[in-house]
Amino acid sequence: MNRFRSLARNHDFTVLWTAQTASELGSRMSLFVFPLLVYAMTGSAWLAAAAEAAHLLGYVGALLPAGVLADRVDRRRLMCRAAAAGLLLHGSLVAAAAVGVLTVGHLLGVALLGGAVAGAFGPAEMSAVRAVVPRDDLPTALAQHQARQHLAGLIGGPVGGALYSVSRWLPFAVDTVTYAVSLVLLRRIRADLSAPPRTGPARRRGRDLLDGWSAIRRSPLLRVLMVWSASTNLVVNALFFVAVLRLLAGGVPAVQIGLVEGFAGVCGIVGAVLAPALVERVPTGRLTIAVAWSVLPLVVPMALWNHPVAVAVALGATVLLNPAGNAGISAYRMTVTPPELQGRVQATSQFVSMSMMPLAPVVAGAALTGLGGAAAVLLLGGVAGAVALLPTLSPTVRSVPRPAVWREAPAPAGLTVAAGG
What we know:
The chain is an all-alpha fold.
């Protein structure tokens, strides 16, 4: 509770968190509505799916250049420009709809560029968090970041759907307002968020793109975390895609499947509230390993019972521990990464992790078609266990202590990331 109070008194973090909470809620509404509107205009499921794919493509494509910018320019200015771009993009949809000239190409273009805006904002925001939050409060700050994401995911879709039922353009109008709110709040940040001093000679920007990869390659801890994060995102998401598809094939009503996802969102918020206490009490390495194995005990019940309760319990239990694991190990990664590499290391890790996500439905569909429901769940559960061995067998992950220890000595031998720029 003391950590929450400390953050509540931190003006710059409160402003940053509030700004992005508003923007993320609006973005989740728009993302929910994009495929609905495209399908309504065209009747094409393929084009509806293309709207979400365009957003993801824009997001992933912007990450690496955004990481360089986050380490080279003023982070507040970069975030403000991203918010202004989002305002203009979604405002253009409202204007086009108001005069009756909204087209599918316009929607897909905004989805693509909106993803790029989100990708540009992310590394700058994480670098800003590291700059405005004291090291002692980093795990709590990142737990609140997780809570924000789960909250937006929980209510963004229903609110977007309700607004869409009133008028097709209304969700985009509200999203435009949230970008405006974000822009106003970001301008109130008082801290100096200018780029950290560069070390070494000036380099070509193309080489800067590779510095995040080089930094991760030199650090055993960061290498394991990047590979594990990407692999577990792919396998666990594929596992739950299989579970949802089985429910659909079994005739489970859509409303019950929606409740499964809603239950997971609630568990994520509860986990984010509990995260600071868990991070303080459990060694960070052990907590990360516990998260890696958390889905395994629930695979067999999920394979045996094709029921929404079984899937809800499995998904909720996995999500419950996730905020604490993410907050702890992400705070430690921020602590051992030099300030001049924060943006690029964050962007590179996220780029690799997000690049695997589009494969999850493909893997799920192939496993379900080739093996059937229960066997697909068990196979993917076995793969999840193999992936969990990555952090479990890593001495650098196992040895990460509680924050009370690593705050005093944040960079043990072999973990410091050498600056490449």
